[in-house]
From TrEMBL:
Cofactor(s) it depends on: a divalent metal cation
Keyword terms of this UniProt record: Metal-binding
Source organism of the structure: Geodermatophilus obscurus (strain ATCC 25078 / DSM 43160 / JCM 3152 / CCUG 61914 / KCC A-0152 / KCTC 9177 / NBRC 13315 / NRRL B-3577 / G-20)
Family membership: Belongs to the metallophosphoesterase superfamily. YfcE family.
Entry's Gene Ontology molecular function annotations: hydrolase activity; metal ion binding
Domain of life: Bacteria
Domain Calcineurin-like phosphoesterase: 5-152
Class in the EC hierarchy, top level: hydrolase
Name the UniProt record assigns to this protein: Phosphoesterase
InterPro entries membership: Calcineurin-like_PHP_lpxH, Metallo-depent_PP-like, Phosphodiesterase_MJ0936/Vps29
Keyword check for Metal-binding: yes
Species classification: Bacteria, Bacillati, Actinomycetota, Actinomycetes, Geodermatophilales
Pfam families per the UniProt record, alphabetical: Metallophos_2 (PF12850)
Enzyme Commission designation: 3.1.4.-
Length: 167
């Protein structure tokens, strides 16, 4: 059965925004699985996610401390509709990222990461797909914030869509 996904990272609530954009909350409410690649900043946002989502796969980021680090791992893994998923906040420099991550995550089909706030969607020579959903609240040098929706279906990730969000 197809599984709907929302991928997000670098939410930085309440430092960069008071709340998540309405479009992201609507997508979260509709999703079967939500993936968050770290930099929550406040444990209250994690609590809200846990109250709302059907299934959460999440990690802590470099700006997450205290209870966030106690409750969330550095690396999370899950199998979703035949897709072997790993989530991590930081992957290092963009140069050589695909090869470096393919070596670090050899038994993984999809790696979701964050940290840079820059949307990213590439595939390593090994077939590992790397997706950074960007940030919905802190666009940095990007034209707008972003998050991703996708569908996991019988071992295939399809309908990967980067959604722009207003400031």
């Amino acid at each position: 059965m197809p599984v709907s996904l929302v991928l997000t990272a670098d939410t930085h609530v309440p430092r960069r925004a008071r709340d998540l954009p309405h479009a992201l909350w609507a997508a979260i409410d509709a999703a079967d699985v939500v993936v968050h690649a770290g930099d929550w900043v406040d444990v209250a946002l994690l609590d809200r996610f846990e109250e709302r989502v059907r299934r959460l796969v999440a990690v802590h980021g470099n700006n997450d401390h205290g209870p966030l680090r106690q409750r969330l791992p550095e690396v999370a893994r899950a199998e979703i509709e035949g897709i072997r998923l790993a989530v991590v906040h930081e992957t290092g420099d963009r140069k050589g990222r695909e090869a470096r991550c393919a070596a670090r995550f050899p038994d993984t089909d999809l790696l979701v990461f964050g940290h840079s706030h820059i949307p990213w969607d590439t595939t390593a020579d090994t077939g590992l797909r790397l997706v950074n959903p960007g940030s919905p609240t802190d666009r940095r040098r990007q034209p707008h914030g972003t998050f991703v929706t996708a569908v996991a279906d019988d071992g295939v990730l399809r309908d990967v869509t980067f959604h722009p969000v207003a400031r």
